[in-house]
């Protein structure tokens, strides 16, 4: 560990000489707000580089806050865990206890209390406690100088509860108040874009948001419908189909591939299957959402679930050896008819980004869509095709390259290769890293290009 101030090696995050003259609370706040990769602080960049996940740098403030008195200590620790999003699910019980303990402490400023309220709002609505979330949202909406993180959670809550006009009004007011703050403007625009997509779905008569937890789903959905009714919004649960009739091949749209990499928000995904032939079945879906070029690895922005194979296919021994997924595990999983709708709700209208997805994953997605009566119209972006423009810069002589080999070349670690979520995260990071290169490949001979053309 290095001292956060002077950068010398130390057993703790502050050496004794630096600790004496340091404002600990301000240092904690700076650590939480630091953006890894920005290059602003060389010492902190060095520490970030030693972490498995650079954004975990903000968690240093959790330990650093031990020197602060209550309620500042607890407040800093909440921010350390929540960052710019929300408290992770497995920490929410702790957060609720801390929130009740410090929320009304007079030492906290109004802005600090509002930020705590915003985090509580996000936690409650993600835990399906809609009435509690509603009360906080109303209080925050009427308050002055609400931090933008809390505003984003208000907007997301109103969007999830189908009050699109109200969400838009709050974003518009917040944008007018923060027009000179680029970071705030970007985040507000992102939540407003999500709101607009949901509004368009409603206008087109498509299925709007429904909670889809892996456990107690029907209970959560009924609580959601009941809450909507209490605020005057009529909604019903979709009726399950008793028996779906598969869509014929010639009536199902072919996967659409886009080649222009002019986007930085998408869903990176990967599939694991019982084998590699057309008659095999999906056994795992993993995905991660990327917003504004930032891979969001928190629970609410990732999707991972095992799938009971179609046609009761068995997991081949070689697949178990490769992935670690056993036949016994997938026998306990939900079928694709239940998992795919949840996955597509997670994806929304975003681009589906994968590695070799046009030759492999999209075929399995199409088959699953046909058998579950779900038309997948999202465009695909194949990172393997995109990587072809950079292979000479990266020193590849062969026409094809595997994800693991490419990630290794780009110094991207994948500790759980051949598991869907880990491969999805790696694919996202590879894509973002490749975008940093010139889009034009280095000059090569015509013969080299022609020899590779067929294989690519």
Written overview of the protein:
This protein has 456 residues and is of the alpha/beta class. It has helices at residues 16-19, 24-33, 42-49, 60-64, 72-82, 92-102, 110-126, 130-141, 148-160, 164-177, 182-203, 217-230, 317-323, 327-331, 336-347, 361-372, 383-387, 391-394, 403-409, 420-434, 446-453; strands at 266-273, 282-291, 294-296, 302-308, 334-335, 352-354, 380-382. Strands 1, 2, 3, 4, 5, 6 and 7 form a 7-stranded mixed β-sheet that branches. A hairpin with a 2-residue loop joins β2 (282-291) and β3 (294-296).
Topology:
Layout lengths: L15 H4 L4 H10 L8 H8 L10 H5 L7 H11 L9 H11 L7 H17 L3 H12 L6 H13 L3 H14 L4 H22 L13 H14 L35 E8 L8 E10 L2 E3 L5 E7 L8 H7 L3 H5 L2 E2 H12 L4 E3 L6 H12 L7 E3 H5 L3 H4 L8 H7 L10 H15 L11 H8 L3
Parallel strand pairs: 1-6, 4-5, 6-7
Antiparallel strand pairs: 1-2, 2-3, 2-4
Name of the CATH homologous superfamily of the domain at 249-453: Ribonuclease H-like superfamily/Ribonuclease H
Give the ordered list of helices and strands: HHHHHHHHHHHHEEEEHHEHEHEHHHHH
**How confident is the prediction overall: mean pLDDT?**
89
Task: Report the portion of residues in β strands.
Answer: 5-15%
CATH topology name of the domain at 249-453, in short, is Nucleotidyltransferase, domain 5
State the oligomer.
single chain
**Which CATH-level-2 architecture of the domain at 249-453?**
2-Layer Sandwich
Query: How many helices in DSSP terms?
Result: 21
Biggest β-sheet: count, sense, barrel? 7 strands, mixed
Q: How big is the Rg? A: 24 Å
- The percent range for helix content is 40-55%
What is the molecular shape?
globular
């Amino acid at each position: 560990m290095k001292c956060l101030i002077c950068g010398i090696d130390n057993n703790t995050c502050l050496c004794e000489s630096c600790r004496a003259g340091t404002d600990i609370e301000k240092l904690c706040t700076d650590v939480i707000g630091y953006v890894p990769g920005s290059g602003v602080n060389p010492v902190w960049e060095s520490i970030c580089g030693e972490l498995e996940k650079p954004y975990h740098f903000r968690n240093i403030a959790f330990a650093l806050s031990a020197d602060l008195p209550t309620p500042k200590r607890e407040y800093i620790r909440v921010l350390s865990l929540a960052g710019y999003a929300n408290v992770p699910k497995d920490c929410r019980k702790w957060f609720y206890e801390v929130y009740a303990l410090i929320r009304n402490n007079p030492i906290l400023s109004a802005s600090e209390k509002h930020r705590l309220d915003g985090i509580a709002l996000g936690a409650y609505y993600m835990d399906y406690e809609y009435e509690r979330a509603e009360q906080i949202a109303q209080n925050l909406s009427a308050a002055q100088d609400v931090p933008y993180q809390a505003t984003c959670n208000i907007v997301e809550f109103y969007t999830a509860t189908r009050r699109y006009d109200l969400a838009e009004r709050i974003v518009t007011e917040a944008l007018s108040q923060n027009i000179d703050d680029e970071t705030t403007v970007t985040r507000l625009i992102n939540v407003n874009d999500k709101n607009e997509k949901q509004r368009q779905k409603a206008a087109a008569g498509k299925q709007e948001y429904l909670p889809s937890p892996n456990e107690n789903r029907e209970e959560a959905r009924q609580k959601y419908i009941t809450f909507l009714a209490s605020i005057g919004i009529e909604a019903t649960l979709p009726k399950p189909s008793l028996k779906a009739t598969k869509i014929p091949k010639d009536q199902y749209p072919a996967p659409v591939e886009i080649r222009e990499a002019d986007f930085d928000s998408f869903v990176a995904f990967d599939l694991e299957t019982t084998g590699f032939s057309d008659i095999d079945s999906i056994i795992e879906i993993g995905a991660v959402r990327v917003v504004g070029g930032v891979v969001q690895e928190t629970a609410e922005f990732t999707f991972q679930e095992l799938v009971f194979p179609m046609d009761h296919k068995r997991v081949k021994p070689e697949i178990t050896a490769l992935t670690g997924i056993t036949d016994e595990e997938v026998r306990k999983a939900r079928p694709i008819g239940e998992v795919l709708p949840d996955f597509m709700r997670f994806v929304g209208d975003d681009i589906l980004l994968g590695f070799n997805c046009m030759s492999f994953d999209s075929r399995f997605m199409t088959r699953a869509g046909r058998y579950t009566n779900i038309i997948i119209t999202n465009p695909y972006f194949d990172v393997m095709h995109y990587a072809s423009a950079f292979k000479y810069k990266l020193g590849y002589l062969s026409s094809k390259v595997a994800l693991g080999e490419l990630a290794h070349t780009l110094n991207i670690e994948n500790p759980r290769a051949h598991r869907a979520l880990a491969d999805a995260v790696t694919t996202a990071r590879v894509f973002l890293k490749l975008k940093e290169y010139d889009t034009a490949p280095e000059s090569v001979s015509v013969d080299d290009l022609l020899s590779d053309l067929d294989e690519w």
